[in-house]
Amino acid sequence: MALYLGLISGTSMDGVDAALAEVDAGGCSVKHAQSRPYADALRSQLFEIVNDPDHCNLDQLGRLDTEVGEAFATVAVNVLRDAGVAATQLTAIGSHGQTIRHQPHGEHPFTWQVGNPHLIAERTGITTVADFRRRDVAAGGEGAPLMPAFHQAVLASPGENRAVINIGGIANLTWLPHATPVIGFDTGPGNCLMDGWTSRHLGAAFDRDGHWAANGHTHAELLARLLAEPFLAAEAPKSTGRELFNLPWLERQLKALGNTVKPEDVQATLCELTARSIADACRRLGGPQRVLLCGGGSHNHELRRRLEMQLPGVPVDTTAVFGLDPDYVEATGFAWLAFRTLGGLSGNLPAVTGAQHSVILGAIHPGRAVTRP
Fold first, then answer.
1. How far apart are CA 307 and CA 295, in angstroms?
2. For residues 358 and 15, what is the distance between their CA atoms, to the nearest angstrom?
3. Which listed residue, 5, 62, 201, 250, has the most CB atoms within 10 A of its CB?
4. d(Cα 129, Cα 127) in Å, to the nearest integer?
5. Residue 309 CB neighbours (<10 A)
6. 33 in Cβ contact with 115 (< 8 Å)
7. How many other β-carbons are positioned within 10 Å of the β-carbon of residue 183?
8. Cα separations (Å) of 282 from 22, 107, 174, 285, 341?
9. CB 212 within 8 A of CB 160
10. Cα-Cα-Cα-Cα dihedral of 122, 124, 129, 131, to 10°?
11. Is 91 helix (H, G, I), strand (E, B) or coil?
């Protein structure tokens, strides 16, 4: 097995997750993992550009690409140091970067991640595979989700229909049936609305364990308005992001409602929205025999309770029961995708992303050259 390092910052935009893994054709094994939060100023800049893209300029984009690249490189160096692994022992880094815009539809579809991979390769000296999503978009796909191929490789079972639910800022589902092809898509909001509402009213980054949501009551009329969002009922392949599910979107629903909803009741309703949209997606696929959660939302006890209520009789576990730390599944997945890229193997599933065919994902940025006399 060869050593790879996977790096990602997801739609929660809270920092960089890193997973050092041994990878081969048969699977992977995580040896060390850690997270590092973004500096407050950098996180604020990222939210500003994502939430108000009309007021950014090329200089801002260039600076963010550099700053995020430096943040990713710092995490990579720290992981190797803490794991006692020399850079020369790594085959490659797989870096997802930070998504700042995802528009896979329209006349000029695109997806855009920042985090300069040339900087990562230069600071670490390690070959860096990056820019995974754009080749799938070029082939007519959504560019997302990319994890279903990895989930299939490490979590599928021939005797059980499983649903792997990654709950980051956006929630996405991988359907791993025992007999039919794998399906994957974004189900809708994960933590992004709950986190934004918590930040506004409590000044906290997130609702720890879902305590605030648990103290509120689901507002039936507001929930109905939120569930009426056409994306939630759209057929796959589909993907989304903060471009759709953001606080201005929520505020429009609240304004249209015409009455005041208590902040804690809004939070409870947002938690129910995430649970309900995930469960509805599972039911439309026929119902899983087991649900495996990963991502930051897997730690939200109230969200998990509501999801269990929506799917009675279905075991709801985390990927930890199969040896994958739920906080580092995506980072591990990008280590695996880097292995696929360097091996000349496809990394997308056209049935998931809607691409016209399988493609080798990512661009390869070589590590430092050997100096010759």
1. 15
2. 31
3. 5
4. 7
5. 12
6. no
7. 19
8. 32, 31, 10, 5, 31
9. no
10. -60
11. strand
Query: How many Å separate Cα 188 from the centre of its chain?
Result: 12
- Cα end-to-end span (Å), the chain: 33
Burial class of residue 40, CB neighbours in 10 A (0-12, 13-18, 19+): exposed
Q: pLDDT of the chain along its 373 residues, tens only?
A: 899 999 999 988 999 999 999 999 888 999 999 999 999 999 999 989 988 888 889 999 999 999 999 999 999 999 999 999 999 999 999 999 999 999 999 999 999 999 999 999 999 999 999 999 999 999 999 999 999 999 999 999 999 999 999 999 999 999 999 878 899 999 999 999 999 999 999 999 999 999 999 999 999 999 999 999 999 999 999 999 999 999 999 999 999 998 789 999 999 999 999 999 999 999 999 999 999 999 999 999 999 999 999 999 999 999 999 999 999 999 999 999 999 999 999 999 999 999 999 999 999 999 986 555 5
Which two tokens mark 336? 């695996």
